[in-house]
Amino acid sequence: xxxxxxxxxxxxxxxxxxxxxxxxxxxxxxxxxxxxxxxxxxxxxxxxxxxxxxxxxxxxxxxxxxxxxxxxxxxxxxxxxxxxxxxxxxxxxxxxxxxxxxxxxxxxxxxxxxxxxxxxxxxxxxxxxxxxxxxxxxxxxxxxxxxxxxxxxxxxxxxxxxxxxxxxxxxxxxxxxxxxxxxxxxxxxxxxxxxxxxxxxxxxxxxxxxxxxxxxxxxxxxxxxxxxxxxxxxxxxxxxxxxxxxxxxxxxxxxxxxxxxxxxxxxxxxxxxxxxxxxxxxxxxxxxxxxxxxxxxxxxxxxxxxxxxxxxxxxxxxxxxxxxxxxxxxxxxxxxxxxxxxxxxxxxxxx
Length: 351
Known about the structure:
The chain is about 20% helix and about 55% strand. By secondary structure, it is an alpha+beta fold. The chain has a domain at about 260-350. The chain has a 17-stranded antiparallel beta sheet that branches. A hairpin with a 5-residue loop joins strand 13 (about 260-270) and strand 14 (about 275-285). It starts with a helix and ends in an 8-residue tail after the last strand.
């Protein structure tokens, strides 16, 4: 009886020593990352920080979480009430995060007369998964539920509302799809949003009211993305363009009641940041949107009849009335056939 007990005690003691060593290594690595990041303009501050998790996990608690990134022309700040991280001691490269609201995201840009975009949101306690392993850039998944928030622009001492939003569920995912030559990779991005409501300057094109979507999803790949990512988004986009990168849209889907729109294609950009590409879009039950416009008084009955006839011609013999169209993007302009629909802003400012 004594020998098995001694064996258990020795093993437990060895594990305890190992856990404290792993915990200390994790704290040292975290401190080193903080120091290196601070030299690059990235800082992480906790009003209160705690470490624990003995005997099988490594846990870090950060109350008053503030992550800031700044360079000469912009500043980004992300704040949560608290962020709690946990990883198994035998699997430290897989980290689970608990994100507690409220969330505050602040982006300031420009020199002199500065403009700040502020996003404030409440949500249920949310989870994020970060897989580090041997990769420089992690595989990240985040799930937010029951989000309510607002977007505001602040410039010259004045506030401009960019709208209020509600999302029942928002799921974001990003990972390296394929590693290319050194410094480049194809990066897969996926996002889904359920029951999205937005009330602001952008309006529903059918009735002019708030935008209400049952579902919105995106699945695509940013090809030849620079790895690791550059210090700021503008620089990352410039390098991506220099790499002859493109955004491959596997599927973009929008659902609003009986209307469903699906798109796929690709988008690239010029050295000046002007977008080009080709996107094929199919729309089911587009006649329902026309009925909505008539009810809202944005379209006459006669115009609606003509539009439905045109869409019927475009749908051909398709029994479900699916309309398939090709959109072209050339030098920052969106075209439907020979018709220019709108001009798109460049994705970065020219040097």
